[in-house]
Amino acid sequence: MSMAPKKILPFLMLLFISVTAFSQRTVNPKAEESYNKAMLQLRDGLVRDAIPLLGRAIELDKNYTDAYLSLAGVYAELKDYKKSIAYYESAQKSDPEYFKYYLLPYSISLAGLGRFEDALTAANNFLTIPKLGDNSIKSGQYRKGTYEFAINYAKTHTANNYVFNPVNLGDSINSANSEYYPSVTINDSLFVFTRRNGNREDFMSSNIAKSFSHAEKINGDINIEPFKGAINISADGEWLVFAGDFGKKGLGSYDIYISYNTPSGWSEPMNLGPNVNSDFWETSPSLSPDRNALYFASNRPGGYGGSDIYVCYRQSNGNFGPAKNLGPAVNTAGDEKAPFIHVDNKTLYFTSSGLLGYGNSDLFIMRKQDDGTWGKPENLGYPINTIDDEGSIFITADGTKAYYASDRFDTRGGLDLYQFTLREDVRPAKTLYVEGTVTDSKTRKPLPSAIELIDNRTRQMISKLQTDETGYYFVTLPVGSDYTFSVNRKGYLFYTDIYNLSAKKPDSTYKKNILLEPIQVNATLTLKNILFPTKSYELEPISRIELDKLYQFLADNPSVKILITGHTDNVGSDADNLKLSENRSKMVRMYLANKDDHGIAIDRMTVKGFGASKPIADNKTEEGRAKNRRTEITITSVQ
Questions:
Q1: Can you tell me the distance from the alpha carbon of 260 to that of 237, in angstroms, rounded to the nearest whole number?
Q2: Which of 25, 65, 108, 405 is the most exposed place for a label (fewest CB within 10 A)?
Q3: CATH number of the domain located at residue range(s) 167-426 in this protein
Q4: With b meaning 16 or more CB within 10 Å and e meaning fewer, what string describes 60-78?
Q5: What is the fold of 10-156?
Q6: Where do the H-state alpha helices sit in 252-325?
């Protein structure tokens, strides 16, 4: 899962020990000649070319221990741990005393296959060797700790028959070059990633229908500069953020840039400025689904380790505010990189070399709590995490599928992109998504506005966001609840509506376009969440959500006067309904007048009951009668 190609240095697998050991037996001269030729291939990085030469050396000398060990190291570097283990064990049979100095790299190959109990035994045996050097002891103890972690993790995390089976995305996506940093829109329609070609990196895209279309370079100005990578597309597919080194155009080496989707293609990248970027290295940007938070990694001073994860929040002017370190809950003395915020807006995935894991950098998950703080990071476990460095991961909107880059055995070349089913216990929260635009009801002009969502059961605000300059909003909602949705903008009547989503299917997107009424005489607003028990004018507790919004509107607009009107269905007598509707209007006025210590003046609110005389729906159905049971406000004066 490494994030960028790496130079293969297979023989370094044999350098974990600080002792120098040589087999004392005589070697067949022709076998030694073939072995020496293999060493030259390895020196030049021609790993696979060395394999037949080492195999030939073994054919000529069945007890050639160094050839077995070298082949074991080569296959370990190629991640063919099964063959690596076989050759290590052949070396052990050939010369047990000599082999014991290679118990540590042998243990790593065992761990590569998930044989952590056997790996721990090998590491413990290695550490019993007399007179080991300090580096060997340190390496042995480090690996021992990772194996113990793996064993304990397996005991406390049941996999429930989970099968890790990454599938190569195929020739439409992958090539002989390296592909990495996958990203996809919320509706799984557009797939973007980075492809390296020599010293150049290009951004690629593929349209997803039943399968991936052949990937093409993204059009527009975004691909002009050669040094870039770590791309992330916004959930709605309208923004691209990425890391790039644009020389003097940037503040440091790699900065975070943004490009916008336009009719003529992706716009010229714009540096996100000093609130986001620094003189140091910024990379791996990830946008929250509402585009109001930007997560990224940076090695700037003042953090907890080499690379830390930071977040910037978008301000009311549309720009991102100052970067904030996520703090010691996530950042360590090691390197934290590759943050990815899922579209549930509460589950963060990232890599860390400082948290305990399987070795090098592992992938972790961290969930946002109800109070807005982050919970404890949790390792994603084997086999998602391995003994190698893990890189970026992207989880689809439904939380079941993950994309990542790997140089597995079936790669087309370098790193390829793969997909796999994510284990259930490390999936993000099941979520609903609501999107739409806020516009002026008269002119249809987009209106940047403040939006709040309140859980009707707890009456707690769960989300507050600002639409963008086009009035567009996108918000995620936890499943299993109903919500009150309110929109506020200066100069307009506030807007409220109820989202009855408790029974809706998760991982679905709903559209809700909102029209705001300008503040003017005779403008009318229907309050949809002012509820009373049958034949009663006592307010239901849930009514306070919408009444508090009305109170705030009147407090913010002290010159506005209103008429509060009550309406009923046609069940019961006309006289009773007329009286009931009037009392309900008076109850609303009383609530507003007595709110806190600074209620709304009575003379700003008149009341009237209309009973069932002004229906807006058919009273023959319960749905229609529910619509007729309503409270409305009408502006009577704007001074």
A1: 9
A2: 25
A3: 2.120.10.30
A4: bbebbbbbbbbbbbbbbbb
A5: 1.25.40
A6: none
**Predicted confidence (pLDDT) at residue 150 exceeds the cutoff of 50:** yes
User: Which element (helix H / strand E) includes 310?
Assistant: strand 308-313
Please report, for the chain, the start and end positions of each structural domain, with discontinuous segments joined by +.
10-156, 167-426, 430-518, 521-639
Locate 44 and state its tokens: 């030049």
Topology of 521-639 in CATH?
Answer: 60s Ribosomal Protein L30; Chain: A; (3.30.1330)
In whole angstroms, what is the distance from residue 13 CA to residue 387 CA? 13
Q: Which candidate, 237, 187, 160, places its Cα nearest to that of 398?
A: 187
The whole-angstrom separation of Cα 521 and Cα 530 is: 23
**Identity of the amino acid at 9:** L
430-518 maps to CATH 2.30.30.100: no
Rounded Cα gap, residues 400 and 424, in angstroms: 8
* Distance of alpha carbon 407 from the chain centroid: 23
- What is the distance of C-alpha 162 from the center of its chain? 22
| pLDDT for res 25 | 67
Share of the chain above pLDDT 90, in %: 64
For every residue of 518-556, DSSP letters joined together read BS-TT-EEEETT----TT--SPPTTHHHHHHHHHHHHHH
- Could you give the CA distance from residue 143 to residue 387 in angstroms, rounded to a whole number? 9
State the pTM of this model.
0.80
Phi/psi at 272 (nearest 5 deg)? -80, 0
SS in 3 state form for 126-161? HHCCCCCCHHHHHHHHHHHHHHHHHHHHHHHCCCCC
Work out whether strand 509-511 and strand 514-516 pair parallel, antiparallel, or are unpaired: unpaired
Nearest to 100 by CA among 69, 74, 78: 69
What is the per-residue pLDDT across 260-299, written as a single tens digit (0 to 9) for each? 988 888 999 999 999 999 999 999 999 998 888 999 999 9
Q: DSSP code of 446?
A: B
Helices (H) and strands (E) in the chain, counts: 11, 33
> Which amino acid would we find at residue 179?
E
Task: Check if the beta carbon of residue 46 is closer than 8 Å to that of residue 57.
Answer: no
Mean residue pLDDT across the chain: 89
Q: Is 563 exposed, middle or buried (0-12, 13-18, 19+ CB in 10 A)?
A: middle
End-to-end CA distance of the chain, in Å? 65
